[in-house]
Amino acid sequence: MSQYFEWKSDYETGDSTVDEQHQYLFKLANRIKSSGASECKPIIMELYQYTRVHFKAEEEIMAEFKYPALDDHKKLHVNLISTLNNLSDNYVETKNSRDDLLAIFGNWIINHILNEDLRFANFVASLED
Length: 129
Ligand SMILES: [Fe+2]
Ligand SMILES: [Fe+2]
Description:
By secondary structure, this protein is an all-alpha fold. Helices cover 75% and strands 0% of the residues. The chain has helices at 16-34, 41-64, 70-89, 95-128. The protein is elongated. It binds fe (ii) ion (2 copies).
């Protein structure tokens, strides 16, 4: 079965913890997509919780590297957590509600990885030059 959220090598940051966690977020999103609208609420809750776990871990890694843009990055994370919180609170058990949640989450996470998490990866790479 083709995956709704397909992992691409373009998304790799080179940090194995971050990359594994991003892949797990994709896996959860795919599980939501493939489960019925009335059965996916627990997986939506897991996605919400795991996103928090991931953001905390990523921020700790960024702090270790003294990433100068950490404060701004944290604000972006806070915004997504509050969006996800609203989406899961307002979730109604319909296919449309499930697909809206996935579309918003999917757009956000892919843009965030490509534009923000990879900016951090480039910063780390520049230290190693
Ligand atoms: Fe991030
Ligand atoms: Fe991330």
